From TrEMBL:
Residues 250-284 form the FPG-type domain. Its cofactor is Zn(2+). This is Fpg/Nei family DNA glycosylase. InterPro entries: DNA_glyclase_Znf_dom_DNA_BS (IPR015887), FPG_cat (IPR012319), FPG_N (IPR035937), H2TH_FPG (IPR015886), Ribosomal_uS13-like_H2TH (IPR010979), Znf_DNA_glyclase/AP_lyase (IPR000214), Znf_FPG/IleRS (IPR010663). Belongs to the FPG family. It catalyses: 2'-deoxyribonucleotide-(2'-deoxyribose 5'-phosphate)-2'-deoxyribonucleotide-DNA = a 3'-end 2'-deoxyribonucleotide-(2,3-dehydro-2,3-deoxyribose 5'-phosphate)-DNA + a 5'-end 5'-phospho-2'-deoxyribonucleoside-DNA + H(+); Hydrolysis of DNA containing ring-opened 7-methylguanine residues, releasing 2,6-diamino-4-hydroxy-5-(N-methyl)formamidopyrimidine. The lineage of its organism: Bacteria, Bacillati, Actinomycetota, Actinomycetes, Mycobacteriales. CDD domains: BaFpgNei_N_1. The keyword Electron transport does not apply. Pfam families: Fapy_DNA_glyco, H2TH, zf-FPG_IleRS. GO terms for molecular function: 8-oxo-7,8-dihydroguanine DNA N-glycosylase activity; class I DNA-(apurinic or apyrimidinic site) endonuclease activity; damaged DNA binding; zinc ion binding. Residues 2-93 form the Formamidopyrimidine-DNA glycosylase catalytic domain. One of its GO terms (biological process) is base-excision repair.
Length: 299
């Protein structure tokens, strides 16, 4: 799932490559992706991209006052091309959801010739069979319900603000708080695992039980993990952002491997269709947490 650093990397890339270009047309390959109908997505045509921003895990393109807002969910991504095919896309079951054709930049010589030739632009894609990628066209990003409900941005949250969030969370598990977008925007499962490992906290630790020192360690870990990921992702070529993310993870997705800090075996807990990974020696005092999947099998 693309999280805050990856979305910021996409925003950074589009600021360099798309800002100043005019939207020539938007092809919709998956009708279910578009969540708004007025204004229609065709209203973006002829508008120049003025700014590209991010709110949590939402990517936002300001097209002369109309915003194209994208949420990539678990398996979505954006792929840039300097030469998109001019042929209209056909709705189908493949990964392509949207294709945005862009004209020449304002600083470029000449102008696009109406789409008769290949133009630059990007595809919005989603892998897998379960489709939950979403796009909105709105006059104000806050018209998107998920954006309106976002908590403070994880990359900018202050210590006192985090302490208040933790204090309000009561008995909720700290990992649940980290991934709750209404509490703290931008962190998903991967970086939650990394933050808790860096802070030496159990994923099951109740928020109300964290000491002042543990909240301070959690705040420092958020800054360290997201700061490093932002630097790596923004500096990477857009096509290699995902591989940079995987390479930088210490525990997430590494069950069965050795912890890079202490050498213990990284464990995981699976629940429903999700899982998280942790190091018992670093985070739970050596205790192996119950894996609900295995517990069900042993009944």
């Amino acid at each position: 799932m693309p999280e805050l650093p990856e979305i910021e990397a996409l925003a950074h890339f589009l600021r360099e490559h798309a800002v100043g270009r005019t939207v020539e047309r938007v092809d919709v390959a998956a009708l279910s992706v578009v969540k708004t109908f007025e204004p229609p997505i065709s209203a973006l045509q002829g508008r120049a991209i003025r700014r590209v921003g991010r709110a949590g895990k939402y990517l936002m393109l300001d097209c002369d006052g109309l915003f194209l807002v994208l949420h990539f969910s678990r398996a979505g991504w954006l792929r840039w091309s300097d030469e998109l095919s001019p042929r209209p896309v056909r709705p189908g079951r493949g990964p392509l959801a949207l294709r945005v054709h862009l004209g020449a930049g304002e600083a470029d010589d000449g102008a696009a010739d109406g789409g008769a030739e290949a133009t630059a632009g990007f595809d919005v894609t989603e892998a897998g069979t379960r489709k939950s990628l979403a796009a909105w066209v709105v006059a104000d990003p806050l018209d998107v319900p998920g954006v309106a409900r976002l908590g403070p941005d994880a990359a900018a949250v202050g210590h006192e603000e985090l302490a208040e969030i933790i204090g309000d969370a009561g008995g909720r598990q700290v990992r649940t708080v980290l991934t709750d977008q209404q509490a703290l925007a931008g962190v998903g499962g991967a970086y939650a695992d990394e933050i808790l490992h860096r802070a030496r906290l159990s994923p099951f630790a109740p928020a109300e039980g964290l000491s002042t020192q543990q909240v301070a360690a959690l705040h420092a870990a958020i800054g360290d993990v997201l700061g490093a990921a932002l630097r790596e992702c923004v500096d990477a070529d857009a096509a290699r952002v995902k591989s940079h993310k995987r390479a930088g993870l210490a525990v997430h997705g590494r069950a069965g491997e050795q912890c890079p800090v202490c050498g213990d075996v990284i464990r995981q807990v699976v629940f429903e269709e999700r899982s998280f990974q942790y190091c018992p020696a670093c985070q739970t005092g050596g205790r192996v947490l119950a894996d609900r999947r295995l517990s069900r099998l042993l009944k």
